[in-house]
Write a structure and sequence with these properties.
single chain, mainly alpha
Length: 182
């Protein structure tokens, strides 16, 4: 009957190995959803940076390199369970978190204490008051910091690290090693 499947039947197309299986992408479809989200966040950020680099060429014919483009590699490497991608994306997140903490420390002084006047990249808020721009900048730093902390937390989870074949278990978190003496 139409729609019924024979239990003993093996579909030759489904049983054939994927052409992507040798590249490492799609070899393990059971990786955690949080890792997929982290990888796609890296890919989206890297793609946006690549777009901005290309857009900088058009009006002024001036190439402005952006280091954020590397996040494309990190994202695809995380999807392919590459150990180097785990290491470099973890380092990238540590750098992002560190810069976020420094930014918060600078802004903690407050808009009334210093002559700091944040200039936001969004044209919609150009006419906003100085305090409004300050709180928008503070909120955006806090949001980015929270996202980076969550991404780092996902990368250091034991179930995520177990998916990377040659990753050192203490790659991102340096825990004391227990050695057995015989």
């Amino acid at each position: 009957m139409l729609g019924e499947r024979d239990v003993g039947h093996c579909d030759p197309i489904a049983a054939a190995p994927s052409p992507l299986s040798n590249s490492g992408i799609m070899t393990n479809l059971t990786h955690p959803r949080a890792l997929t989200i982290v990888a796609w966040l890296f890919i989206a950020t890297g793609a946006w940076s690549a777009y901005l680099m290309g857009a900088s060429l058009l009006p002024a014919h001036q190439f402005i390199p952006r280091l954020d483009v590397l996040q494309l590699l990190f994202g695809f490497g995380l999807l392919a369970h590459r150990s180097w991608a785990l290491r470099w994306s973890g380092l990238w997140l540590v750098l992002t978190i560190s810069l976020g903490v420094v930014g918060l420390a600078i802004l903690a002084i407050g808009p009334g204490v210093t002559s700091f006047d944040p200039k936001l990249p969004w044209n919609a808020f150009a006419s906003a008051s100085r305090n409004t721009r300050y709180y928008l900048l503070l909120g955006s730093i806090c949001a980015r910091l929270a996202l980076s902390l969550w991404q780092y937390r996902v990368l250091v989870r034991s179930d995520v690290r177990a998916l990377f074949p040659y990753a050192d278990p203490d790659l991102l978190v340096r825990a004391p090693r227990v050695t057995r003496e015989t």
